[in-house]
Write a structure and sequence with these properties.
The strands form three sheets. This protein has an eight-stranded parallel sheet. The chain has a seven-stranded mixed sheet with strand order 3-2-7-16-17-18-19, covered by helices on one side. The chain has a four-stranded mixed sheet with strand order 5-4-1-6. The protein is globular and about 70 Å long. It contains 16 helices and 19 strands. It folds into two domains: 3-62 and 367-427, Urease, subunit C, domain 1, CATH 2.30.40; 64-362, Alpha-Beta Barrel (TIM Barrel), CATH 3.20.20. With 448 residues, it is of the alpha/beta class. The protein starts with a strand and ends with a helix. Helix content is 38%, strand content 22%. The chain has helices spanning 40-43, 85-98, 102-118, 131-141, 158-168, 190-206, 225-235, 246-253, 270-278, 287-292, 300-306, 325-339, 348-355, 357-362, 395-404, 432-447, and strands at 3-6, 9-13, 19-23, 25-30, 33-39, 51-54, 58-62, 64-69, 121-126, 144-151, 176-182, 215-219, 260-264, 282-285, 310-312, 379-383, 411-416, 419-423, 426-427. The structure holds zinc ion (ZN). Zinc ion is lined by residues 68, 70, 218, 263, 315-316. Residues 68, 70, 218, 263, 315-316 line the site of zinc ion.
Length: 448
Amino acid sequence: MDLAIRGKLAIYYDANLKLHFIKDPLVLVEGNSILGIDSFSKLKKDINKHEIIGDENQLLIPGLVNCHTHLAMTLFRGLADDLPLDTWLRKHIWPLEDKLQADDVYVGAKLGAIESLLAGVTTLNSMYWYPSSEAQALEETGLRGMIAAPVITGIAELPDAIEVIEKHHNTVQERLRVSLSLHSPYTVTIPDFQEANKYLKEYNKSQTDKPKILLHTHLAESENEIEQSQRLHKEHDIDFPEVSTPTELLDSTGILSEYLLAAHCIYVNENDIKILEKNKVRVSLNPLSNAKLGNYMPPVPKIITDVSSVGIGTDGPASNNTLDLFDTIRFLALYYKGFHHNPTLIKSQEVFKLATIGGARALNWKGIGTLEPGSLADIITINLKKPHLTPNNFDYSILNHFAYAMKGNDVENVIVDGKIVMRENRLLDVDVDQSIKNVEDATGRLLS
Ligand SMILES: [Zn+2]
């Protein structure tokens, strides 16, 4: 069924990063793409057999893009908080992950997908184990997303990752993609990075009819990554190059390229940022997770000025502890103003850009993160008739509300790939209560 979506205001960036405001808008959706967007008075003559959705109280924006998460970690939310990253991972998360089964990941990822949709995320990028389980969760909930073909030296090897790519990349009506996910330079050796990168380059050159594959990794998330990397290389009897930062380490391996998506980038100096941009590396910032894990904070004002492809992510729901991207949006818009004593840093339009078209660029996913005609119909509507979103007489005040006042549960309708997934706050085709129960049961089993 084709859709006609009404609202009070539409806001979006186009592919040239021009910001558009359209008052009293109408969006016409045919199949999975946006046919037109303009004022209701101009476009209403084209409404034919369209199903009408939305009303004069709605803000229409592109579906939000969560560039870095570990979806199924809903299973571990709240189990171990207030700890440093290393202790959290090694003492709490990794021992629990040792016991994980494919079914646990499926129920965890499904709840994560539900939580994401309820808060207006229509595309996410997840790095986790049991990719077929995450694929199933995304398919069933109607999300668009990228799952991981995981590689960790000594634990998950490249041939298995290649199988995941062959099975899942560009499937589910092109809503599902796969990234080659090498956890980090301190869990994957340089030769393994290089071997994976060689495969990726060949794949991207030869598979011209498919979207390019990204190499997804954690980069410069904690201070001791260089020392940890050295330890790993000693274990495997591999020469470690003379470098002082994790970015220099990856640069020395030759794997920095436009096909690398680096999550975090906290411990990056000015030279590292130059190296990232020179190599067209894509970046996902996850400031709320960084703050919670006490990992210090990435130099976001510098990164968003100097790096071309930057999006934001929640990180996993056990390290944030929510998949509501609005929390990260608000935190990002506030934190650096206080930190640098400068209220002009990270303006509302900048966080809006990061959460929409910036995310699309970071994931190298054409057609999402915008409402431009011809783009994919991933659209959310937000009900502005709420006390905390009032007044909303001016376009810019609504954009400011997006950065400073909106919450995930203000999202009223969600459309992914031209299909209504949530209507008037209710997810269609998904049993939310059952999904909650499944996670409670799985976590109970893992802890017992
Ligand atoms: Zn992560």
